Q: What sequence folds into this?
């Protein structure tokens, strides 16, 4: 029995490690046909030509200028575009047209939001991962499944149709950072006006920030593990910092504190 449990736990640990690498974007090690990476190149075959960097049309750089290249104040530009967005569709369109964030180039999809726009609780995450990028919806990978289960435990869900029971979910960054790296401060700064406009349009009663990046974006503070569970204010409404579900997947012992935070949230929305 003891041996079986040990084997099972090894199996789960191995699966979790594999899933973690998959979430990080390590997708190419798993292929249908085996690849011998030690094989010597076939001497008879000519080497493939070097990539033609000069062949990239110069218009691409013009399509996606960075603020540094053009001298544009990209944060001011973001503020202007966000302020002009009168509803969610216009905001989505403005983000789609915003060409100064390099992440847009590598992403498959814009990940805007999910849930009920009239929800009382708005959940703000960090940025899409591989599965969110593929589907164009926030929090649909493993961390998202945990997030759904956590909120379901206090009667809240992104599929609910009443504002009291519903969630609205969005992220600080709408495009996936390559390899799920941390967002850079310049990326956060240029996308913050869109996040603030998004929150203003939803007008939630409570904001829940999942992890360091959204905590920093809305409060300027860092240190989610210290801040978690301590209510503060952002944009004139209560803000609850919580550990990110991806952190909880790696540190299951922290789920106990997350449960306490969820109960505090439940009391706040019911009260
Ligand atoms: N992590 C996030 O912060 N947001 C997502 O959408 C997915 C994973």
A:
């Amino acid at each position: 029995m003891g041996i079986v449990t040990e084997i099972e736990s090894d199996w789960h640990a191995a699966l979790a490690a594999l899933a973690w690498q998959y979430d990080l974007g390590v997708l190419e090690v798993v292929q249908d046909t085996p690849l011998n990476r030690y094989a010597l190149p076939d001497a008879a075959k000519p080497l493939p030509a070097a990539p033609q960097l000069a062949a990239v049309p110069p218009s691409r750089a013009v399509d996606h200028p960075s603020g540094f290249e053009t001298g544009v104040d990209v944060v001011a530009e973001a503020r202007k575009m966000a302020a002009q967005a009168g509803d969610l569709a216009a905001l989505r369109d403005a983000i789609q047209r915003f060409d100064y964030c390099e992440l847009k180039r590598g992403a498959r999809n814009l990940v805007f939001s999910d849930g009920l726009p009239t929800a009382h609780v708005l959940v703000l995450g960090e940025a899409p991962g591989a599965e969110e990028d593929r589907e164009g919806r926030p929090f649909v990978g493993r961390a998202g499944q945990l997030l759904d289960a956590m909120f379901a435990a206090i009667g809240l869900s992104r599929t609910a149709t009443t504002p009291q029971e519903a969630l609205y979910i969005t992220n600080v960054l709408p495009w996936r950072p390559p390899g799920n790296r941390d967002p850079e401060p310049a990326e956060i700064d240029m996308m913050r006006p869109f996040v603030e406009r998004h929150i203003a349009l939803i007008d939630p009663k409570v904001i829940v920030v999942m992890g360091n990046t959204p905590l920093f974006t809305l409060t300027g503070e860092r240190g989610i593990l210290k801040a978690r569970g301590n209510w503060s204010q952002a944009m004139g409404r209560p803000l609850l910092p919580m550990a990110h579900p991806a952190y909880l997947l790696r540190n299951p012992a922290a789920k106990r504190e997350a449960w306490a935070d969820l109960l505090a949230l439940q009391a706040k929305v019911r009260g």
User: Anything to note?
Assistant: The pocket of uracil is lined by residues 125-129, 132, 138-139, 141, 143-144, 171, 246 (CB under 6 Å).
